[in-house]
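Cross-posting from the modeling subforum.

Setting up a comparison between two proteins and wanted a second pair of eyes on the formatting. Protein 1 (sequence, then structure tokens):
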Amino acid sequence: MISTNQSGYYRTGFKFICCRKINIKNFLLNNLKEENRYYKYDFTLDNCTTRLRDILKKQHDSTFTKTAVMPAGTTFRNAIHIYLNNNKQYWSKLGIDILLGSPMDKEMTTEQQEFLPDNLMNSLDSSKQRMIVSTQNLYTINNNNNTKAFFTPFVIFSLLLFAVIGLGFVKNNFVQTSLNGFYGLFYFVLGTLGIVLIFMWSCTDHAMCKNNYNLLWAIPIHIIAAFFINSKKTWVKKYLTLNIILQALLLVSWFFLPQQMNNALLPIVLLSIYISYKKGFAADLPASGR
């Protein structure tokens, strides 16, 4: 088995009696046939690692999957976060947290922990019948950069929030016109993202994309409201008022939702509130310029 982590790539050798080696070889050859080689991929429940686990279970005592390799109560999202944080992949972490919904926050069983290659290898190595006989380092990743990343999503979005609020006080017609365009673009992006999340939830078979609480801030109908964000119509003000209320409730319940939200999105929620207030309640304030 070839596995990888933040330090490099490894090849693992397994211990099997002759007949089981033959059975595994025959299974793999059969799996290469055109009618068998394709399957419906699932990010956590049916991926390349779980397929290997299932093959080994069929050819070996299934008790090897009884060894937990992560603390009790660990969720799928927790496991992914450990990998991404170790590799400082904060933007990938944000994308995964946005796309994958509350099913990712379910506690994993011992067997489900093995959806990650390293977890499967550790489980096999710590089982009663130790199946790993050798581990060969194929390639070492030289990661000497121990400095903490600065331009994380939280920092970038926070700077955006402060910049928009700060520019809101600039009494210049060009600046204010540019901000009005940004407000519409911001809502359009949120609405587009919401439509993508709805599509992944309802139009695909990816179970982990369902019940996504990110739709509380990435509201699909924003894509329509974006074209009226600078309008003074009564219904626009009511819509923006409802958005303020919804986003405020989201902030209050942020750490209590069934889905773990990515804290980098907090500035985005605050920016949504600010824009709704700016256009819904402060739109009549003079913004004279020279």
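Protein 2 (same layout):
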Amino acid sequence: MSTKHPIPSHIDMEVTRLIYAEGGEKSRTGITHAAKTELYRQWTADPRIGGRLLSYLGTDDDVRVWIKNGPMKELARAVNGVGKYKSLVQKPASNVDVLVAKALDASWIVNPDSMDTKPLRVLISHTDDEEREQWFAWAPVVSFKHLVWGALNTQARGDVRPWVLCVVDSFAERVDPSTKAVHERIARRLGLAVSHVTDG
């Protein structure tokens, strides 16, 4: 994607705030492809969003690509307090230490300096053995495959520390039992741990 002119920072932030407020945040736990397509159509047609971007990006298609590869690609990080859009989120996710306690128990310590992305993850250690670390990675159900790939790729590159994959859903959009069972079978086959947590 090429832009006709750079998008000024204040327009980037104002437009992204609207995208997140008007459907973006709600989409993070998983919506149908048709529903997501409709959201992109609405944002592109909205004079406050697509209308403001059009003079910088050139075409409606370029506006859609910018929304997909910019604000929406950064949404998971922003919701979890990471990246330039983090202040625009209306309903941030729980802190990772809360997710760790829900997924495992309160006896695990989070190393905040170890935060990494793609996928979002931190190193954790148990209070009984702080020297033995493992990765704790979390994402919504639609990104489970990215959690799995992140674990396998990291281990293949020589980091043999264990992984806990935390699949996060919401009270409004719960992961169904059959999907949980599939996740658990995949994790067992690959030597990974998986936990399902409801947050918000």
